[in-house]
Structure formats: structure tokens, C-alpha cells
Amino acid sequence: MRKLCFLLSLFLLLNSCATVLNKKTTKVKIHAPHGTKVSLNGKTHFVKNESIKIFPKRSKDSLRLIVSNDSISNNFALRKKTSGTIALNLFLPYTFGAGFLVDLTNHKRFTYKKNLYFDIDSINNRFYMPRKKPLLFKKNDVFIYTTPLKAIDIFSQPMLTIGAEYFFTNKMSFSAEYGTVYTKRLGSGRNPKLQLVEDKGRAFRYELKYYNLISISNNPRVNEYIGVEARFLRYQFNDDIRFSRKIDDIRYTVDETLVVQKSIDIFNIKYGLNYPIGKRLYIDLYSGFGIRIRTLKNPNRNYNPDTDFLLDEDSHYDFRRNNIEGINEGNDFNFSLGFKFGYKF
Questions:
Q1: Residues 220, 186: one domain?
Q2: For the chain, what is the domain count?
Q3: At which of 95, 128, 161 does a domain end?
Q4: Among 142, 289, 145, 133, which residue's Cα sits nearest to residue 222?
Q5: How many Cα atoms sit within 13 Å of 239 on the Cβ side?
Q6: What's the alpha-carbon Rg for the chain, to the nearest Å?
Q7: 133 falls within a domain
Q8: Is residue 305 in a domain?
Q9: 148: which strand partners?
Q10: I need a labelling partner for 3 at 20 to 30 A (CA). Which of 106, 167, 295, 343 fits?
Q11: What is the pLDDT of residue 232?
């Protein structure tokens, strides 16, 4: 019975996300005028370069600070928050929510705001926390953006893109992006003059983002987000292959121009930084990983993989194989890295 209780307790402990992932302390960055003193639990910290990091213990109680300089001293009590890591228990369905039971009895589930701002009210001679927090987004904000790297994509087909992002709450946004091919495909093959179909391409991207759940950069000018992304790319273009065919005892080489109809569906989890440039412009830097689903069609193709032998160019792997139906299809790991450039209305 003791062993069973021990194993059950160990199971609950190892599957409670906040308890396992969070430290006993959390990091808070204080932004205040140079020379300000911040006292926490009897220990005094001096602000240099207008900011300093403190590490209060996680607790159900408010974070109590004394902010002072040579002539002013004020007390502040800042309410605790629930750590976002507790929500990770939702991604462990095999525990049936048991991880919440441990987290809800542990102070590690609490945290405090990652950035605190203090300034001096010279009229009333006191410290105060500005109500207007710099550079945070709000409900009904709208961005228009483009993805510049897509316009010079040498690994695929260059596209022009335009998108919009809308904040339906202060911290959550939805964005949609459209892209279209605007130039000929790079590396059109051995016989670029033979065009069976017109080069076409379009792309759709949809994203759902949650801002400022975490703060890795600790930069008050940066809004960080976690997001989920779905991308749908559709291409039509010409490509060619070379293969060996044998009829009776005679083997000969065939060059064939293919019609390629390629569909790629991508689903990612992303982390990003939204960094302002001036009052209206911004750069969105992001990285993510997920799954890539590739589907290919070659209508009216002559090449038969069951009887013909595909020849690689110059005895090296020929990337034209990637455009042949039945050879390079299926699901692959996907990694994304890029940036967007936009304007805030």
C-alpha cells in the first residue's frame, strides 16, 4: 500500500507542470529613475541604467516593495498572478487533469508581472506607477504587414504577400495573409522554353496569437507572443526529368517536361517578438516548428516509376525528384524562421 501511494504521488508530481517547471522564485524587472532604491524583504536593490532585476519568492500574497530615493519613500503592494505554465496541464490528456490537483496546492502556480514601471510625481513628491504602460496593444488594434523574404525566396517561388492582424482582446489577435506569385519560377529546368502550363502560385496564412504570456527578452519595448499557425500553399509550374526506359533488350534515355501541381499544408506552434520602429512601424521576428504535409500531382505524366529508372543529374541527387508524384510526398517535420514588416493604424 505504501508503495502504491508513493507511485501515485510521484506520478502526480511529475505531471504537474507549474510544480515541475517553475522555480520557487520568479524574475521581475523594475524600471525606475537612476539611483532609485527598491527594498524587498529587508534587502535593498539599487537601480542602475534605469532598470534592475529582482527575484521574489512565489506566493499567494501580494508582492510588497518599498521604492525610495534620498527624499521620497513609498510602499507598493502588487497582486499576484497565475503562472501560464499551469495551462500546460491541458496538453497532458492522459493524466485527466490530475496535474492541476498538485499545482493548485503549490505556491509555484503564482507569479507577478514581469515588468514594473515607477516614476516620480514631482508635484506631489512621490513615486507612482504610470497607468499607461508603454507599447502594449489593446483591443481593436489593426496591423497591415508583408513578409519581405517571400519576395526573394530562391528555394521555392518568389511571392508578394499582404496580411492583416486584428486584436479581438487586449492580448489575443487573429491574422490572415495572402501571397501570390509575381515572377517566373527560378531554376525552370533543362528546357525552360517548353511551357505546358502557366506558372501559378498562391499562399494563405492564418494565425492565432496570445501576447505577453511569457517574457524572455525582458525588454519593455517588446511584445512577445505564443501562437499557432496554419499555412496553405498551392503551386502549378513546369519541370523536367530524365529517366532510363527499357523495351525488350533496348535501353534508352528520355527527357520529359512535367506539369507539377503541388499542395503544401503547414501547421506550426510559434514564438515571436513584436518590436516597434518609431510610432507606427514594427518588425515581427518569429520562429516555430510543426508538421508539413506535401501532396503532388503530375497529370498526363509519361514517366512510370514501376518500370522506368530515374536518372540524377551529374551523378548527384537531383532535386527535381521533389516534384514527382508518388516519390516525395507525405508528412515531414517543419521549422520556420523569419520576420514580417508592418504598419500599425
A1: yes
A2: 2
A3: 128
A4: 133
A5: 25
A6: 28
A7: no
A8: yes
A9: none
A10: 106
A11: 96
Domain that residue 301 falls in: 142-344
Whether pTM exceeds 0.70:
no
State the Cα angle at 28 between 122 and 12, rounded to 5°.
150
pLDDT digits (tens, 9 = 90+) for 112-140: 888 888 888 888 888 888 765 556 788 89
Virtual CA dihedral for 327, 331, 334, 340, nearest 10 degrees? 90
Residue with cell 528520355: 254
37-40, strands of its sheet edge to edge: 43-46, 37-40, 63-68, 73-78
158 and 86 housed in the same domain: no
From the list 281, 234, 241, the residue with the least C-alpha distance to 262 is 234
**Alpha helices (runs of H) in the chain, residue ranges in sequence order:** 2-14, 17-21, 98-103
Length of the chain: 345
CB 148 within 8 Å of CB 142: no
Beta strands in the chain (DSSP E): 28-31, 37-40, 43-46, 51-54, 63-68, 73-78, 81-82, 110-111, 115-117, 119-121, 126-128, 142-146, 159-167, 172-181, 200-211, 223-247, 250-277, 281-297, 309-310, 330-344
Residue 239: Cβ within 10 Å count: 23
Q: Residue 103 — very low, low, confident or very high, per pLDDT cuts 50/70/90?
A: low
